[in-house]
Structure formats: structure tokens, C-alpha cells
Hints:
Blueprint: E1 18-22, E2 38-41, H1 44-54, E3 58-62, H2 63-69, E4 73-84, E5 90-97, E6 109-110, E7 124-128, E8 134-141, H3 143-158, E9 159-162, E10 169-170, H4 173-183, E11 188-194, H5 199-204, E12 212-216, E13 222-228, H6 233-241, E14 246-247, E15 259-265, E16 280-288, E17 294-297, E18 302-309, H7 310-315, H8 322-328, H9 331-341, H10 354-369
Helix pairs in contact: 4-6
Amino acid sequence: MSQQVAPKPYTRVKRDEMTFGILPDFVPATLVGNLKGDARLYSSNEVYDLMMEMDAGFVGMRRSVIDKTEAVRQLILYTLATKLNSDGVLMYAMYQRAAGAEAQLKDGFSIGFGGHVEKKDLMSHFTVDAQGNDVEIEEVPSSFYSTLRSGVRELSEEVLFFGPEDGERPLTQEEMLSYIARGYGFARIGTNSVEALSQEQMEASAIPHETIAVLNTDQPGTGALILAAGASVTDAFRVIYQAEPIRPQVRAQLDSNIVPCGFISDRDVEGKPGHVGNSHLAVVAALQVKSDIDFRVLEEKYTTIGWKTADELRAMHARCEPWTQYLIEHLDALDAFIRAECHTDNTVAKAPTLEELEEKAEAVEAAEQQ
């Protein structure tokens, strides 16, 4: 007879969460061309194919164990946010890491947003049934789709994109009335100003107050806000919600596609432990937002720097974290890729190959020389 075991509460310790990546033996030596550190661009189709080649080595392990053993190259979707300014120049969103980050990243400037693949990010591979429908293979997680999903999550957690109309501002009277109506279950609410509330109104009110009353009416779904002694809708909002009638900054609706476009790999070839690249592998991705979109980073340890041109990035090369430095060395190719592949209207197009990008760059160069 089995004996029942009473569950015991688990005490969290630092970096005991699971993270996912590729076993080092499954990472091609030619992935970026330079083992010590570099970035290499591919088409999105080529990124997918390379991820599929490494997929058999996709595993999960506690971060604390990886830190000690460097047994797994943890996957990071390193996402570049870009936009075109009024002159058609491509600009990159930049922020600065603060003290408390890994030693090699501390105080470094970065153009890459992203984080580790967590358990909640895992997505399965898909196959196609006889009718041509996508069918999820639940037992087999996909390194490619899981990494993309983690990047989208991290981007939403780390960055707030907003447009000209999305900033913090006072609520309009119509908006305040809408909040009050919904708070009391009304489809709509009207207002009425009186010199003083009657005893009957105060007793029937949904809130106890001497100058403000919220009442039901004879019409279904309609309420009445009674304001006495000069009270305003703003006063009523403050009394009901115990807060100022301010609409917080909201996220812009982005219709951008996030496109994988390469890898970054850097390892300490001399075998010194603790190098960030020894236990990480970056999948580079890019998106483009509309020209009137701005951003701010949400992490308290990060500082928003703003939008930077390629020339500005080159001037800051030495002050950037290593992964950003590697990408700065490929900005011309990145510019061509992002202009061709990243869209602000969710348009899906076939990813160009490197050869196509090179041919396009040569054609532009030839046109400029004429």
C-alpha cells in the first residue's frame, strides 16, 4: 500500500527558473563565421531552416545550473525596433542598461530588446493533416516558434510604444461619464444639476454623499448623476474612484511584422567561464513601426535613450554592449533587409535571400554612380 506524502511548500532561490536553449554541440560552427563573436544575417526562411537543424538539441535547464556549467546556449530573440524618420532615414530604438546587469552588459547601450525563453513561451511544432489543416504536435516543442513567442512577450513587457494621441491626458467629461456609467452597470448616464439633494435622493443614491448622487431611472440601462451645490462631473469622478480623472499613457496599436533576420554568437575561445556568450545564443529579429511612433522602456533598470540613425550608432560603437556592437558592423545590410521585409501594415512578403539583398544593394550603387 502506498503511503501518502504531504506536499511541502517550495522556497524559491535565485535563478531557479527553467530556461530553454540549444546544446552547444548542435550549434553549427559556421553559424556566424567567427567563434569569438559576430553577427550574421540570413533571410527569415534561412533562420527557420537553421533553427530546425538545431532543434534536436532544444532543451530546458535551470538557469542556476546553466550559469555554473554553461551546458546550454540559452536562446534570446534580440529584437530591433526601427522606424523611418521624415527624411526616410532608418532609425533604431536605443536604451541603456544600468548597474546590476551582467558585468559585460553593465551601463552598455543597446538596440536589442529580448529575454530568455520561459516555460510559458513553449510552442509546439505543427504538421499538416490529409485535409491540409495545421495540426499541433503537442509533445514536441519548437525552438523556432518558442523563441519568437518569448520575444513578442518580452517586447510587450519591456517597451511601451505610443503615438501622438496615446500620451497621458485628462479625461474628457464624456469619458468620465462613461467610466461612471460602466462602474454602476449602466449603458449610459445623464447629469442633472440642482441646488441641493433631497432627502429622498440621498437615501436612493448608490453613493453616500451630500452633493453627489447616482440614481437609477425609469428607463432600463440608464442612470442619473445628480450634482448639487456647484459639484461637477470631475468632482463626482474623484469621489467615486478616489483618483484624478487622468487617462494613462496607452499602447499604440502596431500593425508591424516581426521578422527573424540572423544570429549573434560570441564565446570566450580561451575557455574563461562566465562570458555571457558562452551560455547564450541570439536570434536577431526586426520590426518597423510608423514614423510618428515613439517609445519608452518599462524596466526600472533601463534608461530610454531614443531613436538613433546608423551614423549615430557607429559613433557610439565602443559604448555599446557586445551584441549591439556586432550588429552595428552590419548596419548597411540590416538597413536593406528592414526596408525590404519589415512593414507597418502587417503585410506579409516573401523574405529575400542574401543574394537578392546584395543584388539590390549593387543596383542602388550602380544607379548612384550614373
